[in-house]
Amino acid sequence: MVDRLRFDDEVVVVTGAGSGLGRAYALELAARGAKLVVNDLGGSTDGQGSDASAAARVVAEIEAQGGEAVASFDSVATPAGGKAIVAAALDKWGRLDALISNAGILRDRSYAKLDFDEARSVIDVHLWGGGFFVAQPAFNAMKEGGRGGRILLTTSASGLLGNFGQASYGAAKMGLVGLMRTLRIEGEKAGIKVNALAPIAGTRLTGAPVDDDAPKGPGKVAPIAVALAHAQCPTNGEIYMAGAGWYSRVMIGVTEGWVSPDATAETILANWDKVSDASTYSEPRSAGDISTIMRNITG
């Protein structure tokens, strides 16, 4: 029988936790003993306005179940907001064990008609906000605390694979993957594990919110977020996709390719099937691994 994962005495920050996926994560973590900073600006799906009631409601839910939580209404999209979110954990409990960076907005527009101010606001929330303004102070707090920690960044199928009308959103979400890979390397010595999750669920942000326990509800994603936030999870530097009870690892690989010291554009095209053949591939863990792969293949 598998022992239930517990978070007793541990402190977790969840951004965008006023509804949807973030709320599902926060409630499940609290049910397992974690102390929560429930962060949510409470704005609209395109980032307008604010409403403190969203985060406050989730805190009330947690407290009604006997858990501990504090609300944070700060914006992830500013350095000051990010620091304040992490400070809420440190000021209340003196530690931070895990961060789930989940806050997000959408302002979809085709690339040809992209408004750069709108695009900047999306990137500010997802990449600058989730990846830097909140994650950096969290990373530093974990490093200084000496206990390590876990950071879970939220990527997306739109970033990994592309989606019409989501150029800015997709760019931000794929940018988080590159950041995650670098933080894996920089945090490893301090025991900080950093991974990325691409959730698939019906939420307010997708325009089709459903109950947590619905087939495509946020509750079907929460288990893997909880697992990745737990100290027992050995994974570091990986990408996962989850939804509707499906849990999968997303890989970044390089094919064995084709070698020709005298290659020309013409001969490369003539051997395009060998360049692209994915029957044999490697999964490099860092940019440094590429040199080893090239040396092994080219001799």
Automatic annotation (TrEMBL):
By its UniProt entry, which InterPro entries does this protein fall under? KR_dom, NAD(P)-bd_dom_sf, Peroxisomal_Beta-Oxidation, Sc_DH/Rdtase_CS, SDR_fam
Q: Does the keyword Oxidoreductase apply?
A: yes
Ranges for domain Ketoreductase come to 10-203
Molecular function per GO? oxidoreductase activity
What UniProt keywords are attached to this protein's entry? Oxidoreductase
One matching Pfam family is adh_short
* Origin: domain of life: Bacteria
Q: Which residues form the signal peptide?
A: none
As for family, the record states:
Belongs to the short-chain dehydrogenases/reductases (SDR) family.
What name goes with this protein? Answer: Short-chain dehydrogenase
